[in-house]
Amino acid sequence: MVTSHRSRVVIAGTGSVGAATAGAIVLQGLCDELVLINHNPDKASGLAMDLMDGSDYTGRFVSIRRGDWADCRDADIVIVTAGPKPKPGETRFQELGAAIDIVDPILCAIRDSGFDGILIMVSNPVDVLSWFAWKRTGLPRAQVIGSGTALDTSRMKAIIGDITRLDPRMVSGYVIGEHGDSQFVPWSTVSFVGKSFTQYLQDNQSRYADITLDGIEEWTRRRGLLIKSLRGGTSQGIAATVAGLARTILWDERRVVPVSTLIDGEYEYDEHDVFLSLPVALNADGVGDFVDLHLDESELSKFHRSARIVREHCAMIADRL
Ligand SMILES: NC(=O)c1ccc[n+]([C@@H]2O[C@H](COP(=O)([O-])OP(=O)(O)OC[C@H]3O[C@@H](n4cnc5c(N)ncnc54)[C@H](O)[C@@H]3O)[C@@H](O)[C@H]2O)c1
């Protein structure tokens, strides 16, 4: 007899980001079963039907339905995208008070279901909420991640792709730290078509006279705000990113990706009890080995600044634990 494991992904919160993430997962046929939970159950039912209606044209059949917290028990991945609708002009930290009121009961329900898979936090401020989720659920550190700067890294690559008119996937490197204003690019980690990106720019100075590393970093940092001002919010980029993380976990792809993870004394990063993004090996068990990026002094000080900012905001909600 064939024994098969039915992979299940649960998405909690089916607003713009949750719905787009569900779409990305279904179109790629990443799991066997997708369960949608929303505090307005009709919205989850409607989205499930809407997604099902494309079944004849997707790569693979995915069973899709509205569910409830009990469905988390046997889930491989739970993705939390519930939160207050981000307002144009508002920073992610300004969402914290409203976000914790929404996310805390959801985390309690996930914990009480007996869930023992990988929890992916997407709601903002994502580093603070990932730390809170780790504490609240009691899951092992390897099983709690935030989407973190996986999105910002993809944004940085998209911007370089746009500038050079080459495939963004030719870029290797990371945005690290907070998913927010203090994020940064350690440029020494960024390579492109077989050389450092810094070297690539120098080699093509006349073609890219107006392009600087600082400029690319700032465009990357501001990209979310720009999209919000243009179309009211972001959803497609984060959806592709989260689906990519889910694929890496479900298919045990063992990619090295920058996600928000508990930092606990690794290498020279020298931080504890804080969630920030660093490149880590991600596989079916969650977060594995860290990569030692050998940050220079100025990069380390930027990393510590991110840690300080995130930790200060964690302190504001610590009394809820
Ligand atoms: N990490 C990232 O890179 C990233 C990118 C974009 C958005 N986000 C975050 O994702 C979250 C959702 O953004 P969105 O644009 O989809 O917002 P949205 O308003 O479209 O959707 C919010 C969802 O939260 C649910 N919700 C609201 N109040 C609730 C409550 N009291 N209990 C349970 N569920 C509740 C809603 O039903 C809805 O499903 C926000 O926190 C946003 O900041 C994160």
TrEMBL record:
Q: At which positions is substrate bound?
A: R92, N124, P125, V126, D127, D152, T153, S154, R155, T234
Task: Identify which residues the record assigns to the active site.
Answer: H179 (proton acceptor)
CDD domains in the cross-refs: HicDH_like
Q: Does the keyword Oxidoreductase apply?
A: yes
Taxonomic superkingdom: Bacteria
Name its pathway: Fermentation; pyruvate fermentation to lactate; (S)-lactate from pyruvate: step 1/1
Q: Which GO terms describe its biological process?
A: glycolytic process; lactate metabolic process
Catalyses which reaction(s): (S)-lactate + NAD(+) = pyruvate + NADH + H(+)
Encoding gene (name): ldh
What are the GO cellular component annotations?
A: cytoplasm
Q: Is Zinc-finger found in the keyword set?
A: no
Q: Which InterPro entries match?
A: L-lactate/malate_DH, L-lactate_DH, L-lactate_DH_AS, Lactate/malate_DH_C, Lactate/malate_DH_N, Lactate_DH/Glyco_Ohase_4_C, NAD(P)-bd_dom_sf
What's its job?
Catalyzes the conversion of lactate to pyruvate.
Checking NCBIfam families in the record gives: L-LDH-NAD
Similarity comment: Belongs to the LDH/MDH superfamily. LDH family.
User: Can you give the residue ranges of the Lactate/malate dehydrogenase N-terminal domain?
Assistant: 8-146
Its keywords, alphabetically, are: Cytoplasm, NAD, Oxidoreductase
Positions annotated to bind NAD(+): V17, N38, K43, V122, S123, N124, S147
For this UniProt entry, which segments traverse the membrane?
A: none
Quaternary organization? Homotetramer.
User: Where found, per UniProt?
Assistant: Cytoplasm
Q: What is the lineage of its organism?
A: Bacteria, Bacillati, Actinomycetota, Actinomycetes, Bifidobacteriales
Domain Lactate/malate dehydrogenase C-terminal residue range list: 149-312
Protein's UniProt name: L-lactate dehydrogenase
